UniProtKB/TrEMBL annotation, chains A, B:
Protein known as: N5,N10-methylene tetrahydromethanopterin reductase
Domain of life where this protein originates: Bacteria
Gene3D superfamilies: Luciferase-like domain (3.20.20.30)
Keywords recorded for this protein, A-Z: Flavoprotein, FMN, Monooxygenase, Oxidoreductase
The species this protein was found in: Terribacillus saccharophilus
Occurrences of domain Luciferase-like (ranges): 30-393
PANTHER family associated with the record: ALKANESULFONATE MONOOXYGENASE-RELATED, C2H2 FINGER DOMAIN TRANSCRIPTION FACTOR (EUROFUNG)-RELATED
A Pfam family it matches: Bac_luciferase
Keyword Flavoprotein found: yes
Family to which the UniProt record says this protein belongs: Belongs to the NtaA/SnaA/DszA monooxygenase family.
Length: 457, 457
């Protein structure tokens, strides 16, 4: 069977996500309706109609306050603010769907593993195993300030914290409750067999968690694990823990290079390369004809806000573009305490510096990477070409006019991809992990499965 | 108009809450279905049909491990374990209701104020202003161990932490965003007016939070505030912050005494006594006839588990009843680091000690306080009598066979209370706070409103 595209809607429970300035478009609804359950319920139904595998919720825990030295530009254009907690729309969306899954971002830098484990166990129970956790270590300096720190923990240490956070999570989610701990036998009067529930007694460098976990084993136990780091530490972390990774790059071939790199690293850790699915972004402007699509793209450019794009870039890289001269050169990776790598998306060659002027020009238009623009057939052609050449398993589909663009994609592009056999006509049964990998729990070679079972010596 | 009863269902997203052993009853469904959205959606519809004002979710962050020195008794009988995070059923229940409100417990001892403020802003947006926060400082020693502490913070310090937690919360929820900060004007291109969003710059003893808040003002801004402390510190805290308080006591008159005490304390803080509503528990066993109700109560007693009750008592008071002799006397308030006061429910006179044997006997039957048992008319009579004599504003209705008992109450008792004018026939419009007090935001005299507005000098 032809390999089929895994499709996710890339979203955020905010007035605006990455479609900077597009809230001004007369047909955009999200900035007004993101606060209402009805909006998300309607979206869930649309995505399930379009056989989307999942909706992926990004998240941040502060404001973008680097560009120009404060958060004014970010507020003015609504750069990921105002923003709600993404996890709470999931139960309402799950209630009206059967197959759509939900990936939600949680930072290991500002959350407690015990809270987080209970949150994901709960969501996994309520959705019948349709949740995924996008593991991030957070990049906004303002987020650190919101959680009692004067400045951010350094990049490498953030990954050490994340590693221990995962270790605690595995102990709670995988090891604390044996599969048959819940008996519910009215004859013997035993609801839970106390011999099958174990304290985890974790005492580490960053966390101390006694346990036991309080939630019983959920369909997937550990949610499907996503990770998006592109730094050296980030890719190493992904190779050990992640089941789905995000890979960015200037060309399909470069993306393929990164995918192979992560899969090779995973193999070096004893995992199967097939237990990692790779995703990249997909930017589409589609309409009934090429002419209409180009006209739609003109509208997108018309409403685009370069200032908002720079505000987001500032918060996510630490570079304040307002404080550099045009001809100054910036390196792809900013080697600071923050150690961000977002600038990698901007250049074909990660080792080559670029000028501030080049970046400014990049942000004057609506995407850092190529946008696929055209008629439904043209768009399907380009998606197919990109899919084959890059070797990705799936896409995170962005949108400019929300939710209209998702609607158009479902109506115009999905049927063609289905016709070509590149996209499913029906969902597979089971949990999200079963749909992706055919088994409900983490693979046997995953590090979460390597620990000695608690209480079983 | 006659004062009307405010009615809440007392619940927990756990296999069992306080109906110890009743999961064994053949008609009990909760222990099997609490993990499913369908269960909570059905319950939401039932409660709105019965014109319940709210569902109140208790919560704990650990296991009951004092009785017998470990958590075995608690696990065996499912004493508030297995347990999910209560907040996540709210959006799905809100989506199928219009008026039912949702009170959810969050501990100020183990949560971060920034996370918590965003959580409640989100829930308040998604429910159109139908959320309340039950503020607790937590009593389980195991919870402390799950959040990196070897033992619990002492009782009085927990309240100092709670005070500062509330201060930060008010700054984020009330002061950070001015009411008209969100402009959404495509003409000027301004989504949020940056001059009307303020950093809170909180630097205190326990928390340091820079802000600004990331969520825009929700219908109620601050959720309706509940508090249940009965200790000296707890009542003082309630008098300052709470809009709804829980009061326990052996007789209606004793409950009335506590209510008057808290209202007097609130007045001393410059608040109106009318801005505090008092609740107590309501235990009911009702059936079509008195005979059937007594038979139903026999079933409740048959399935009751004294061991489970002792396990819960152990965790919430610190007293391990397995380690005392029958004739030993325990004082109502245990003056330990934990400083719990649950034992107050057990005696008519708070200053009088009671023997371990007396407590053991108390736990051999299904309630610490009187259960109202009888035909619908008999139950309505007793509720009316209790309501008038105690001066409470409302009840937290418990249930033994779940959700059957709530069903029976809605079918059998609600119509009679409505007929007598003691209970509403229709909901009032608006947010939860508007339904309770006629205004959407905290009252002007509430301490949250006394702070100098940020950025406005």
């Amino acid at each position: 069977m032809t390999k089929q595209i895994i499709l996710q809607a890339f979203d955020m429970t905010a007035a605006n996500h990455n479609a900077h300035g597009l809230w001004k478009h007369p047909e955009n609804r999200r900035h007004r309706e993101y606060k209402s359950l009805d909006y998300w319920i309607e979206l869930a139904r649309l995505l399930e109609k379009g056989k989307f595998d999942a909706i992926f919720f990004a998240d941040v825990l502060g404001v973008y306050d680097v560009y120009g030295g404060d958060e004014k530009a970010a507020l003015r254009d609504g750069v990921q603010v105002p923003l709600n907690d993404p996890a709470f729309v999931i139960p309402a969306m799950a209630a009206v769907t059967k197959h759509l899954s939900f990936a939600v971002t949680v930072s290991t830098s500002y959350e407690q593993p015990f809270h987080n484990a209970r949150k994901f166990s709960t969501l996994d129970h309520l959705t019948n195993g349709r949740v995924a956790w996008n593991i991030v270590t957070s990049y906004l300096p303002n987020a650190a300030q919101n959680f009692g720190m004067d400045k951010m923990v350094k990049h490498d240490e953030r990954y050490r914290i994340a590693d221990e956070f995962l270790e605690v999570s595995y102990k709670l989610l995988e090891d604390s409750w044996e599969e048959d701990a819940v008996i519910s036998d009215p004859e013997t009067g035993v609801l839970v067999d106390p011999e099958k529930v174990h304290r985890i007694k974790h005492k580490g460098t960053y966390f101390s968690v006694e346990g036991p976990h309080v939630s019983e084993p959920s369909p997937q136990r550990t949610p499907v694990l996503y990770q998006a780091g592109t730094s050296e530490k980030g890719r190493d972390f992904a190779a050990r823990h992640a089941e789905c990774v995000f890979v960015g790059g200037p060309t399909p071939e470069k993306i393929n290079y990164y995918i192979e790199d992560i899969k090779a690293r995973a193999e070096a850790y004893g995992r199967s390369r097939d237990e990692i699915k790779a995703f990249t972004f997909l930017h589409v402007v589609v309409a009934e004809t090429e002419e209409k699509a180009l006209a739609k793209y003109d509208e997108v450019k018309h409403y685009w806000s370069a200032d908002a794009a720079k505000a987001q870039y500032g918060g996510s890289t630490g570079y304040d573009l307002a404080s550099y001269e045009n001809e100054e050169e910036l390196f792809t990776y900013k080697h600071t305490e923050q150690g961000q790598s977002r600038a990698a998306y901007l250049t074909k060659d990660a080792a080559k510096p670029f000028t501030v002027k080049e970046i400014q020009e990049k942000f004057s238009q609506p995407a850092e990477m190529d946008i696929i623009i055209g008629s439904p057939e043209q768009v399907a052609d380009k998606i197919e070409d990109f899919f084959v050449r890059s070797g990705v398993d799936g896409f995170n589909l962005t949108h400019y006019i929300t939710p209209k663009d998702l609607h158009d994609f479902v109506e115009l592009v999905v049927p063609i991809l289905q016709e070509r056999g590149l996209y499913k006509k029906d969902y597979a049964d089971g949990t999200f992990r079963e749909k992706l990998y055919g088994h409900p729990h983490l693979a046997a070679a995953h590090p979460a499965k390597q620990g000695k079972r608690l209480g079983q010596n």
